Amino acid sequence: MTKARRGIYAAAISPFDKNYRLEHAKLIEYCSYLLTDGGCDGVAPIGTTGEGSSISIEDRLSLPKLFFDAGIPGDRVILGTGNSSTPDAVRISKEALEYGYVNQLVLPPFYYKSVSDEGLYDYFSFMINTINSDHLRIYLYHFPQVSQVPISIELVARLKKEFGPMIAGLKDSSGNFSQSIAFAEATGGIEQDFDIYPSSEAFYFKGIDAGCAGIISGSTNIFATLVQAAIKAPDGPDSKEFERVVQARNFIGAFNLMAAMKSAEANRILDEDWERIAPPLRQLKPDEKQKLYSGLSEFFAN
Hints:
The chain is an alpha/beta fold. 45% of the residues lie in helices and 11% in strands. The chain has one domain: TIM Barrel (Alpha-Beta Barrel).
């Protein structure tokens, strides 16, 4: 039971059947691909890109055992366990811990808006105290554009001071790199064993220089190999490989990210069921898919 390794993570997409139930075996197979040929150091399933809030509690509770049975190492998974219901967040977290998935990405409760730091502290502290396991490693999930419930720097510092290594890091999906720097400065970043993950591969090198641990990105479902090539390139952030990464990230920004990742996977393995996305989200339109496929073919041309 170890803390998640640092590096390039994909916020993994989730396959659904016709009733919008999670197809567990398909997700396990997909995450295994990401961790091998997909170029990822780790996966972060059942988060925003994984439509975690659209997945039933039953499906989320049954997932950790299947990851375990598949032999996917616990230090390569940061599993989404947050929920607007505090008791359900505890249930999901405990089930993950039962099978060794100690590294957990936890959204704040997102239904009520304009809540205080004290209220958010109550949520996270209740989770930690109720779970009552020294193995737990929480990665706070700051995504104010979607959750409308920001996690302040002061709250992060308070939780880290109170609970030590159980507050292991933070995923910053704000898209504002100065926010990631502020979190790193307030916590000490990786020098103080607090792992901050910006959400864009375009921030990778700046993030590492600022004390971040890597990236957790939705678009690394398809672009992780490009990022790894840039990391290995002698010129790093000044390389043509990293220029391609930035261009790829800018390109994908023109699409709904979740729908685009699903269309890309459907096209990769010729399985149109991968395009299924839970309401209220919608699949890409035919013309959008053709634009996506055309652009991707250019980025991965030899």
